Amino acid sequence: MILWQMIRFAFAGLAANKVRSALTMLGVLIGVASVILLLAVGNGSSVAVKNSITALGTNSLTVTSGSAGGARTASTVKKLTVDDARALADPSAAPDIKSVAPVVTASATADYGNISYTPGSVIGTYPAYFETANEKIAHGDYFSSDDVLNSSKVAVIGSTTAQQLFDTEDPVGKKISLGGTPFTVVGVLATKGGATGFNDPDDVVIAPLPTVQNAFTGFSSVNQILVQATSADTTTQAQSEITQILMGTHSLTDPTKLDFRVSNQSQLLSARESTSQTFTVLLGAVAAISLLVGGIGITNIMLVTVTERTREIGIRKALGAPKAVILGQFLAESTLLSVIGAGLGVAVGMAGSHFSVVGIKPVVIPSSVLGAFAIAVAIGLFFGSYPANRAASLRPIDALRHE
Amino acid sequence: MNHRRARKSRAVEEQRQGPPPPVIQVRGLTKSYGHGDATVHALRGPADPVTGEPMGVTLDIEQGDFVAVMGSSGSGKSTLMNILGCLDVPTGGRYLLDGVDVGHLDEQQLSLVRNRKIGFIFQSFNLVPRTTALAQVELPLAYAGVRAAERRRRAEAALTLVGLDKRMDHKPNELSGGQQQRVAVARALVTAPAMLLADEPTGNLDTRSTEEVLSIIDGLNATGRTVVLITHEDEVAAHAKRVLRLVDGQVISDVRQGAVAGPPPLLADTLATTRRVPLVGGPR
Lengths: 403, 284
Prior knowledge:
Oligomer: heterodimer
Helix content of chain A: 40-55%
Helix content of chain B: 25-40%
Order of helices and strands of chain A: HHEHEEEEHEHEHEEEHEHEHHHHH
Radius of gyration of chain A: 33 Å
Strand order of the largest sheet of chain B: 7-8-9-4-10-11
């Protein structure tokens, strides 16, 4: 009963100074909304990094040709070959390597009927590539090892390519002409998404390695070798095994003068992830400061309110209001300010997180919403307690004499 | 808190044994402000014949009495009123309200005493802004912990008593001065206090409203409520049964105008001449 009375008084008190109350709430609103939104932006960027790690395959290693620094002359650089890939696939020499897929890339125009389209890349590889590169079939099937052995003219196409060439038609079983060579489409890849700029991972045509070599690149070398380690934990061992084996096949003795590079994408990306976490913490700190400023705004306005209503406090005390009731009334008012402000802040933060901020799609952290709200309410209580206590401690005679 | 209240009221009961004590017993009450040479004695009473120190004001007010305290500004009458109303604490002396020595009470207990035993009526009405007359009158009951339905019933009865049953939903800024003061009177009497303390209740009112408010106070006293009224107008003091005059913090005259039992003098005259009962007041 008394509680209900207090809340009613608090509402009446806030309504008496609408503009002032609204501005104070705005302070809390901005604080809460910025905590939610900025943490969501930080979280969004680390989620994006995590997604690209998963998209790559967490235990994949890429071997590319070229020196990792040091002297580099054309004569010393030996290109990667299918033989290198075969050497890596030896389980006795490289126990931590699960599968190996040599990759050649080409560029060709695809024709279907009267539609002509140039996909982002034409890739020739082994079936192991699909698992290593985390490419999944949405419709149809992968090509098989037999297709590789027989140099079958079959292809798996990305979702973007499928859309461009076939629109709504079912591509599986259809024949496309790729640079003049006819290929039968056997499968369509699931959309990976995450297109960054001009590099769309769904705009590909993947065919058996010998078929692509035969039609486009020739048999001399491959562009890269995609290696899958047995697990994410063994990527480091796998990396050193690759280096050992390829030093052998390339007849190199000095590990500082390699003509190939083994890159471990997931390591790179986890470094980026920790960077984005630092970024999140920084953003959160800035937002927390604005929440604190909002809290100080509450103290400020409640002090003004107490001064303004000193006489009213005196009247209430003369009528026998106990200290606790006066304290409760002003605390209720400041808490109400923060609760409404925080509630609106949550709404604004949630609404704001639907827009992407500087290219990052914010991902709201549920605990940050709850936390920001709780902290805002606690701030209302904490920052309201000083003015409320001041009001409750006024001597009735002084309060009544106040003009 | 309820436990505390229960304990408190039991203590009050215990002190009440024997014949009913005067509502107010003031013994050697002094109040001074400032220190050393700058000390101002707002309440001093007669000076001690030997030392010259102020001995303080000593005063008894019987239950059912209607006392007017008169004096010019600075005579100490407001200081006396604030101490009697437990709004201020005396510098020295003892003050027993309804048999309880309020000097020993802490803040929590004082607020309880103000709530239960004293009804205030101020010169400047002192209504809570933005609050309807009904809520205004319910306020002291709410602080006393009375349930909502009971609160409303008693507040309505009190407002009806002061003739404002048609104005219950009006806020202070929608009421005339006389009406505001009548709301204040209703608020003061709704808790059935031991004493009504009125500090120049008609100071801000026109003649007609003054008569209205005073006749309500007369009626309340006629039904047995103790009234202490502070004024500097003789017309207002004429309503009282007993008139105290304060000069420089001491009582210089104490005149009785009517018996403690029975209606206040002016109301008695009206009754005698018109034989009509102006029905204000009612059982406690």
